[in-house]
Write a sequence for this structure.
């Protein structure tokens, strides 16, 4: 028989064989745990895959990144995604002081937390995952209120040796020697350098959180390495990914340990719980998870208020005070920070801090007396002259908190759009205006001493920041009674002083780092244009501070005051100077990010100046008619809302007319834009 006559498969048989043959595709190991167990294709939607959602299943999360399995990725920089938080159970912010719990996502295995394993910094190629904390076992009891915790004495004797392995020990030492001072910002803080370290000797959750922060700081250091050819640049290997992954592991362990202690009703002092909350807030602010950071602060304020309420009950056997002033002051600053963030960006509930946990009175009984509305500890008297910077700062913190409480309370009765108060009740704030002036007068000798011999850069920066915060508070409080953006023009001298003080800080930082890293500025290669990024128009490469690396501190510093100048000062030169300082010296102060703040202000400036002639720095100092250089009233706008993701470096900005009374009327000045950086 001829070979051509050999039997062949029919076309129908061939098609049937194709249908039966399983498609061959590369194995995917990044699907969620549920889909992997069910052996179905996962769509990998975060935080919950749609396959699980549509089938009515609870998505149990994704497996940890394995460097050996997934391969090294040295060419990308990553943002850290949110992690479980201690947060109020009640989504109603008014009830957020009443109870708290540690939230978590369930783990199918019920084993220890398995945090994501991805490196940090600025551009993402694959999405990191949240650490997984096991859900509490069925039938186990959860304390319904913080008073379910059994409190122990305030201090425990340090152990002889900490239960560290060699890697944990390295990060703990890094925290003790470097990170603790960095977190303090421009102020000396015994909280970080003494209290936290002492507590870590006896509390595992704090110990793991300290190690996590040490690893995060190492991550930041490695992820923001010097430009190529820098004297201290390193190989990428064994840098950001390793430190970042370890930070997440330790953070997961810290959350898990505290959660187990609270649910198991182990003895824990309120001091231990509050310090843990501060550390968790710090971690989440560091990674840009402002929502969980705010919920942490709410939980801490709730516990503080409950402890104060217990101390005020005479019929109960009072225990000795366990909350030292240092810890109370820390939460005061965190509350002020969160409130300032909300006032600037207008967050929705439940991410709005309420400074008055007891609720507001039915009516302001005496509007001329701020103390009749604000609650909390009584304001200490302001001396004629502050002896120390710490004394001045504590006084300003207390005054700022009371002013915010006062404004918050009045807003419940008279508040208009964007919490702007009507002008006819401005007289009710006269007492606070007098207090701010008294503080400024008492602070003057310290301010004048900032350039004295023997004053360090850190001390000088602390003095400058205190004055900047006082000026910002005064400006915002007094203009809070105005429906017009034109009233900010009266504060141009104050805006100028804020910029001068901020520039002193940044220039001191630049000179100090330049001397440390390069020795001689004449031999410094960082000033070559190829070694740093250009800034957005109207700025140039020459405006960059090339030795300042990205930094993080939990305390507020120069960013909020500069943001106020950049958005409210219409002097074209001062406004650009403020934006330049924000974008050219990247830093995150608590939840305040300088790059986001600078980009938002730049957008506002471009809107307001779109009908003005182009601005040229070389003609700015000429004798021009100031009215011609300022945006008219009908072009001025205010920030209405900023929705952002610091981990993805993107934000949606909205602005509009200040004090628009009728919400049914379309705002002719309303604008919206989407930015990335």
């Amino acid at each position: 028989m001829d070979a051509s006559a050999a039997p062949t498969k029919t076309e129908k048989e061939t098609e049937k064989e194709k249908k039966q043959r399983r498609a061959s595709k590369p194995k995917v190991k990044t699907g969620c745990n549920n889909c992997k167990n069910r052996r179905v294709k996962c769509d990998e939607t975060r935080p919950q895959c749609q396959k699980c959602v549509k089938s009515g299943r609870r998505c149990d999360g994704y497996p940890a990144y394995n460097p050996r399995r997934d391969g090294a990725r040295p060419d990308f920089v990553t943002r850290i995604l949110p992690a479980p938080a201690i947060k109020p159970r009640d989504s109603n912010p008014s009830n957020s002081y009443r109870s708290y719990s540690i939230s978590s996502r369930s783990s199918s295995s019920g084993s220890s937390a398995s945090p994501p394993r991805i490196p940090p910094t600025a551009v993402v190629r694959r999405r990191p995952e949240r650490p997984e904390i096991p859900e509490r076992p069925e039938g186990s009891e959860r304390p319904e209120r913080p008073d379910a915790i059994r409190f122990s004495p305030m201090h425990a004797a340090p152990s002889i040796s900490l239960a560290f392995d060699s890697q944990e020990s390295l990060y703990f030492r890094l925290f003790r020697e470097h990170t603790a001072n960095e977190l303090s910002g421009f102020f000396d803080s015994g909280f970080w350098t003494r209290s936290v370290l002492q507590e870590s000797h006896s509390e595992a959750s704090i110990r793991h959180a300290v190690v996590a922060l040490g690893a995060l700081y190492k991550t930041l250091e490695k992820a923001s390495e010097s430009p190529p050819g820098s004297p201290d640049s390193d190989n990428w290997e064994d840098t950001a990914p390793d430190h970042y992954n370890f930070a997440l592991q330790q953070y997961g362990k810290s959350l898990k340990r505290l959660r187990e202690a609270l649910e198991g009703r182990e003895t824990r002092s309120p001091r231990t719980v509050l310090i843990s909350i501060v550390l968790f807030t710090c971690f989440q602010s560091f990674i840009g998870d402002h929502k969980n950071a705010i919920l942490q602060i709410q939980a801490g304020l709730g516990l503080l208020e409950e402890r104060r309420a217990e101390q005020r009950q005479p019929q109960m056997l009072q225990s000795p005070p366990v909350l030292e002033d240092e810890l109370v002051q820390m939460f005061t600053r965190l509350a002020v920070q969160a409130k300032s963030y909300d006032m600037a960006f207008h967050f929705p509930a439940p991410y709005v801090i309420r400074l008055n946990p007891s609720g507001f009175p039915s009516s302001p009984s005496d509007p001329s007396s701020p103390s009749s509305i604000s609650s909390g500890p009584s304001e200490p008297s302001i001396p004629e002259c502050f002896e120390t910077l710490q004394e001045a700062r504590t006084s300003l913190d207390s005054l700022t908190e009371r002013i915010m409480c006062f404004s918050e309370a009045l807003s419940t009765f008279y508040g208009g759009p964007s919490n702007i108060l009507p002008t006819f009740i401005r007289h009710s704030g006269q007492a606070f205006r007098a207090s701010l002036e008294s503080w400024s007068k008492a602070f003057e000798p310290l301010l004048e001493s900032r350039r004295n011999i023997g004053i360090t850069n850190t001390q000088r920066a602390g003095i400058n920041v205190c004055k900047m915060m006082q000026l910002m508070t005064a400006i915002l409080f007094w203009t809070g009674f105005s429906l017009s953006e034109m009233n900010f023009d009266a504060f141009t001298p104050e805006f100028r002083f804020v910029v001068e003080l901020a520039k002193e800080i940044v220039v001191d930082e630049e000179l100090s780092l330049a001397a440390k890293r390069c020795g001689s500025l004449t031999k410094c290669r960082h000033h070559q244009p190829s070694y740093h990024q250009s800034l957005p128009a109207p700025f140039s490469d020459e405006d960059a501070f090339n030795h300042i690396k990205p930094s993080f501190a939990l305390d507020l510093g120069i960013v909020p005051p500069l943001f106020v100048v950049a958005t409210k000062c219409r002097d074209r030169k001062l406004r650009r100077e403020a934006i330049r300082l924000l974008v050219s010296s990247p830093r995150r102060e608590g939840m305040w990010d300088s790059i986001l703040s600078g980009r938002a202000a730049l957008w506002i400036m471009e809107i307001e100046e779109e009908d003005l002639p182009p601005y040229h720095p070389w003609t700015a100092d000429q004798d021009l008619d100031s009215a011609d250089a300022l945006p008219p009233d009908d072009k001025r706008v205010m920030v209405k809302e900023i929705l952002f993701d610091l981990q993805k470096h993107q934000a949606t900005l909205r602005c509009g007319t200040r004090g628009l009374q009728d919400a049914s009327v379309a705002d002719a000045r309303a604008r919206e834009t989407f930015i990335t950086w």
Remarks:
- Residues 64-160, 226-237, 359-377, 528-542 have pLDDT under 50 and may be disordered.
- The chain has 19 helices and eight strands.
- The first strand starts at residue 86 and ends at 87.
